[in-house]
C-alpha cells in the first residue's frame, strides 16, 4: 500500500534509497543487543525496506534488454547472501566463551552501507523528491495511487501469480527451516553436520539461478518451470522414501538447483502479463503473497509437527510442491502483441 503512494512522489533511485536506508536502520539498531520489544520493531524496518527494494529493483531489471539473464544474476546474488550469511553468523556467535551473536549485525550494517552507496551512485539521475508537476495536489496523487491499486487488483493474472509465489516461497522457507530438525530427529543425524544441509540447498539454488536461466528461456519458460516442478517433487520423494542421510543431502542440493530459477522466471512472466503502468504495484502485491507463504507454511508445519512429530515434514513438502506446480499451470500465457502496452490474460 505505502509503496504505491510513495511511488507517486519519488523516483526510482529515491525509492531504492529509502528501502536501503530502512534496512540499514533496522540492522544498526540490532548491533547493541536491544531489548526484545525493540528487536521486534527492527524487523519492521528491514522488512519494509526489503519490500521496496525487491519491488523496484525487479521492476527495473525486468525492463532491460536480456532481462531473464539479469534477473537470474539478481536472484543468484540473493541466494549468495543466504549461503554466506549463516557461515558468518556461526563464526561470530561461536567465537569466544561468551557468545556475542549480535555482532553479526555489524556485518549486515557494512553490507547495507555499501548497498546504499551503490544505489545513490548508480541511480543518481532518479534521486528525485517528486516526479509530479508542482501544481498537482496531494489529493490527486492519492487518487492516482488508489486508481493504480484498483487496476492492479482487477487483473486475474496478479492473483494467480501471487498464488504461485505463495506456494513457492513457502516451500523454500519450509525446507530451509525444518530440514535440519527432520534429519536430526527422524534420521538420527549429527546436529553439527546436518547444519550444512541448508547451505547445500542454498548453494544449489545459487547455481540453478545462474546456470538454468539460459536453457529455461531458450526452451520455453512455462514448459521448463513445469518440468522443474516435476523433478522437484521426484527429488522430494527420494528425500522422503530413501532412509539415507547422504541420499537426503544430495536430493536436497539438487532440489535447490531445480527450484532455483523458479523465482526469476515468475517475475519475467509477470512483467509480460501485467500492463506496464502497474508493474511496480503488481509485483509489490505478488511479493506480499510470497512473504505470506514464507510465514504461513513453516508455522503450520511447526504446529502439526508439535502434535504428530516432525516426520510430517515430508508429505507436507510434497503437497506444497504440488501446489507450486498446479498454481504455475493456472498462470495465464502472455500474448505478444504489436503494441506492447496491450496485454491479454
Automatic annotation (TrEMBL):
UniProt keyword annotations, A-Z: Glycoprotein, Membrane, Transmembrane, Transmembrane helix
Domain Major facilitator superfamily (MFS) profile: 158-345
Cellular localisation: Membrane
GO molecular function, one term: transmembrane transporter activity
Primary localization class, coarse: membrane
Any one Gene Ontology cellular component term annotated for this protein: membrane
Keyword Ribosomal protein attributed: no
Membrane-topology annotation of the record: Multi-pass membrane protein
Protein name: MFS transporter
Record field: transmembrane: 36-55, 67-89, 101-123, 158-179, 191-212, 224-242, 248-270, 282-306, 312-331
Pfam families for this protein: MFS_1
InterPro entries: MFS, MFS_dom, MFS_trans_sf, MFS_Transporter
Keyword Glycoprotein: yes
Amino acid at each position: 500500500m505505502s509503496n504505491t503512494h510513495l511511488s507517486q512522489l519519488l523516483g526510482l533511485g529515491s525509492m531504492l534509497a529509502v528501502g536501503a536506508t530502512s534496512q540499514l536502520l533496522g540492522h544498526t539498531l540490532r548491533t547493541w543487543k536491544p531489548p526484545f520489544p525493540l528487536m521486534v520493531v527492527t524487523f519492521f524496518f528491514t522488512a519494509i525496506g526489503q519490500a521496496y527494494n525487491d519491488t523496484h529493483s525487479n521492476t527495473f531489471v525486468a525492463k532491460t534488454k536480456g532481462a531473464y539473464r539479469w534477473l537470474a544474476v539478481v536472484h543468484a546474488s540473493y541466494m549468495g547472501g543466504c549461503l554466506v550469511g549463516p557461515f558468518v553468523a556461526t563464526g561470530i556467535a561461536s567465537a569466544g566463551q561468551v557468545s556475542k551473536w549480535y555482532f553479526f549485525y555489524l556485518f549486515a550494517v557494512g553490507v547495507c552501507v555499501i548497498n546504499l552507496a551503490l544505489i545513490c551512485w548508480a541511480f543518481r539521475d532518479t534521486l528525485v523528491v517528486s516526479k509530479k508537476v508542482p501544481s498537482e495536489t496531494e489529493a490527486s496523487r492519492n487518487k492516482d495511487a488508489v486508481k493504480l491499486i484498483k487496476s492492479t487488483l482487477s487483473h486475474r493474472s496478479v492473483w494467480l501469480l501471487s498464488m504461485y509465489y505463495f506456494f513457492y516461497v513457502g516451500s523454500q522457507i519450509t525446507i530451509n527451516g525444518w530440514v535440519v530438525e527432520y534429519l536430526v530427529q527422524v534420521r538420527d543425524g549429527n546436529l553439527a553436520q546436518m547444519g550444512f544441509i541448508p547451505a547445500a540447498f542454498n548453494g544449489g539454488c545459487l547455481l540453478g539461478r545462474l546456470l538454468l536461466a539460459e536453457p529455461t528461456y531458450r526452451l520455453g519458460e512455462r514448459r521448463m518451470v513445469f518440468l522443474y516442478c516435476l523433478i522437484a517433487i521426484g527429488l522430494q520423494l527420494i528425500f522422503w522414501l530413501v532412509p539415507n542421510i547422504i541420499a537426503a543431502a544430495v536430493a536436497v542440493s539438487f532440489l535447490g538447483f531445480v527450484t532455483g530459477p523458479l523465482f526469476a522466471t515468475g517475475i519475467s512472466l509477470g512483467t509480460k502479463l501485467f500492463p506496464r503502468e502497474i508493474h511496480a504495484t503488481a509485483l509489490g502485491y505478488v511479493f506480499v503473497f510470497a512473504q505470506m507463504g514464507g510465514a504461513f507454511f513453516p508455522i503450520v508445519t511447526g504446529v502439526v509437527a508439535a502434535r504428530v512429530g516432525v516426520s510430517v515434514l515430508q508429505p507436507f513438502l510434497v503437497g506444497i510442491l504440488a501446489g507450486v506446480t498446479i498454481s504455475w499451470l493456472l498462470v495465464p500465457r502472455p500474448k505478444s502483441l504489436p503494441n506492447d502496452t496491450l496485454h491479454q490474460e
